[in-house]
Amino acid sequence: MLSTRYTSTFKKLKKQKRLGFCPFAILGDSTEEECIKRVTAYINAGADMLELGIPFSDPIADGPIVAQASQRALDAGITTKKCITLIKKIRTATTVPIGILCYANSVHAYGIESFYKDIAKAGADSVLIADCPPEELAPFYNSAHKNGIHCICIVTQDTDRKRLKIIEKFATGFLYVVSTLGVTGTRTALNPKIADTIKFLKKSTTLPLSIGFGLSSKEHLCAIQKAGADCGIVGSYLVKRGSAELPAILDKLDIKPLD
Amino acid sequence: MNTTYIDIIAEVKLKSPSHGSFKIPNLKKLIISYEDGGANMISVITDKERFGGSLDLLKKVRELTSLPILRKDFLSTKKDMDETLEAGATCVLVIARDHTHNKTLELTKYALSIGLEVLVELHNKKDFSLINKLPKEAKIGINNRDLVTLKTDSNFAISFLDKIPDDRYIVAESGFSKPEELATYSKKINAALIGSSLLTSSNPAKLLSQLKKTALAKELTFARNQQRISYFGEYGGQFIPELLIKPLQEVEFAFNKFKNDKAFINKLNVLLDTYAGRPTPLYKAENLSRELKFNLYLKREDLLHGGAHKTNNTLGQGLLADAMGKKELIAETGAGQHGVAVAMIGALLKKKVKIFMGARDIERQHLNVQRMKLYGAEVVSVTSGSKTLKDAINEALRYYSANSKNTFYIFGTAAGPHPFPTIVRHFQSIIGTESREQILNETKQLPTIVCACVGGGSNAIGIFSAFINDETVKLIGVEAAGGASLTNGTPAILHGSRSYCLQDSNGSISESQSISAGLDYPGVGPEHSKLKDIKRVIYTTATDAQALYAFKKLSKDEGIIPALESSHALAYVLSLKGKLPRTATVIVNLSGRGDKDLTTVEKYI
Ligand SMILES: Cc1ncc(COP(=O)(O)O)c(C=O)c1O
């Protein structure tokens, strides 16, 4: 059976009229210890769910901040196997949903079936493969669902009804809505199209909407909250800080429920 | 438990002998309902007499959907296969009972070689004795309707299902109308072809999705799950972020439209001839032939404008970009050869050009950087990762995902995500077409060996493509020993496709190491991976030292300075000295000229 953590978390958020907060970290950045400190800061700041990235040598969907974090972690000797051990450790510290972000070759090299089996055992709830559109998802999807893991799919401002139908054949848990064209990274301004994208999606799907890519301030989070998003994923803006300065930064991102 | 449901091939036919005519008031609506119901492929019967079809019907369907299309008809010649591909089908039916075994095999292999998928339909015991001879890529069709008596007998088919090897993709054809009937096949087949019951249903989409959910598919390996046009056997695909799906679908659509468009072809041919200098000569290297004791011919792509075969591809893709109304061209480059060829075409077509190049390569290939700048291109220095070609591709893909509306990405080799491997092969195949004609004119027979160097694989696939069906011709691909993805690698997913690749046990892509920047790439095009596995091409390697030796040898003995890349192919051929009959002919694709390499070579001498 698929993990139920997302359903209950999004239900709770809806009841509290709160925007979910989902911080992102690269596993093993810059070392395994440093990564645990970072994620602990996230949990202490009240993260509603986590996105954790498995480093890959050629991350084509990532901008410089996350790409460099991945390289740092790889240079420090992280492997997919060690990432899974880290996830297990993080799971002992929290009950919030844990999503994995990775690239197809990491899963392929590990062995598709064993990958999903092992991350399920470690306590993860979902996997988003950044370079795996629905066209290529079938073999991954089969192993994921066999092991109770959600396949998270990406939608963009270009996703129309027809494409959404294709995506929905695989997507469960939530939809990852990329706020802008391009790669991960901080942005000064939020893409103004995001409000329309959210509006269209709310009409067309029952899946919760988590917005990611470029969210870099409290204002950005407030804006997507107003537009109707269920959760905001903050990556590069946090990844570029050391774990020591994180609590202060996270404090500033705290936003109020809608009245 | 495997939860893959069977694939449904939904059929379009205007009438059938058993049913009479079908009412299709709105073809577009029907196709949309097939898509909505989750059809994996559309089958179109083009036989006129009994089924009222035509190739025009297939072409109409092609315009309405991007799903794979199966052409069903009573076909018997290679020309039929060409015509099928041209009409836009992706798969073709070959009915074993209509031919001798040899003929069935010949048609199947031919269709596969031109890029069609093949469904071989088997009826009786005699047909079934073919199974182990059929190429593994061929799908097996079990027809439980006897086309002569028109009776369906599903027990016959079921009795044979267990005898088919596990790795074959099995399609159950005709005879189902109800979910219960299909359920009896659960886990024994991969796909079912459904015709009449969908065509007479008031809600085809609903029926289709119900049918799909009644039967689990037979389990196949990763590879055999992939039955799409973007795959070469188990290699290829479209492993890219969702943001790039739409732009690449647009490129694929435009390519399919313009590759057969008369005006487009004319424009390209005029430029190939008058701007780039095609056809390039096939030169008999007399001095070396005497020494090697066989006949050595060089396909002179080094004489092409720009100094390498790259111009064939950049002219083709450049015109495609122009036809799509794109204002900006981008590209990756390693040695700078592809970057130069794109910058050149950018100048010709008046486009803005951005070339992504690793910071380390910018240092190594200064002359080419200056050439690109002279043509008016911007050279973007890539400082991420290993600062070489693979990182330049990463950066170009990143830029493309933010700027695809106005930008066309001219991929430089027959690798990357679908449709690039297919597009690049198409534009480079002129090397093979010319070579084959030239050698037949000159020697009145096919060559013994055709040899090319392999970086990403574009010059190699370009010359091989014309000879792949000539079973007597040996094809040899030569990799740089320090970048030998096919020889030393394992399948990985890099830059949008699954193919052999140099990687560590964690799946991190390794850095390659070669004196020749154009072969310094840890990946390779997916079609080569398939050709390696089916053993149609033999891949081998040459070391830096062997390539340098060949570089100097051709310069001294023939007065031709070859590119260091091409020198790898020459190095292999030099090693054949005295090992072939005197009458043997060997063609080497001399993919580029070596002026660009003089500073590198100087350092080593
Ligand atoms: C002259 C020449 N030959 C061969 C290659 C290798 O590429 P491919 O394998 O795509 O032909 C290059 C690449 O830069 C080249 O410049």
Note the main sheet of chain B.
8 strands, parallel, barrel
Q: How many β-strand runs of chain B?
A: 24
**Count of DSSP strands of chain A:** 9
- In angstroms, what separates the terminal alpha carbons of chain A? 36 Å
Secondary-structure element string of chain A: HEHEHHEHHEHEEHEHEHEHH
CATH topology of chain A: the name is TIM Barrel
Subunit arrangement of the protein: heterodimer
Radius of gyration based on Cα positions of chain A: 17 Å
Number of domains of chain A: 1
Strand content of chain A: 5-15%
Q: Please name the CATH topology of the largest domain in chain B.
A: Rossmann fold
Low-confidence stretches of chain B: 221-226
Provide the residue-averaged pLDDT of chain A. 95
What does this structure look like?
The complex is a heterodimer of chains A (259) and B (605). Chain A has a single domain (5-240), classed as TIM Barrel, CATH 3.20.20.70. Chain A contains twelve helices and nine strands. Chain A has helices spanning 5-16, 32-44, 64-75, 80-93, 104-110, 112-122, 134-146, 161-168, 194-204, 218-227, 236-239, 246-252, and strands spanning 20-26, 50-53, 98-102, 126-129, 150-151, 153-155, 175-178, 209-212, 231-234. Chain A has a nine-stranded parallel β-sheet. The longest helix of chain A is centred in the middle third of the chain and has 14 residues, at 80-93. The radius of gyration of chain A is 17 Å and the shape is globular. Chain A starts with a helix and ends in a 7-residue tail after the last helix. The mean pLDDT of chain A is 95. Chain B is of the alpha/beta class and 605 residues long. Chain B folds into three domains: 7-212, Alpha-Beta Barrel (TIM Barrel), CATH 3.20.20; 241-260 and 308-409, Rossmann fold, CATH 3.40.50.1100; 280-307 and 420-601, 3-Layer(aba) Sandwich (Rossmann fold). Helices cover 41% and strands 18% of the residues of chain B. Chain B is built from 26 helices and 24 strands. In chain B, the strands form six sheets. Chain B has an eight-stranded parallel barrel, surrounded by four helices. The longest helix of chain B has 17 residues, at 242-258. Chain B is globular and about 75 Å long. Mean pLDDT of chain B is 91; it is low at 221-226. The chains are: A alpha/beta (259), B alpha/beta (605). The interface between A and B is large, with 50 and 44 residues. The complex binds pyridoxal-5'-phosphate. Pyridoxal-5'-phosphate is lined by residues 308, 334-335, 337-338, 413, 453-460, 518-519, 563, 565-566, 591-592 of chain B.
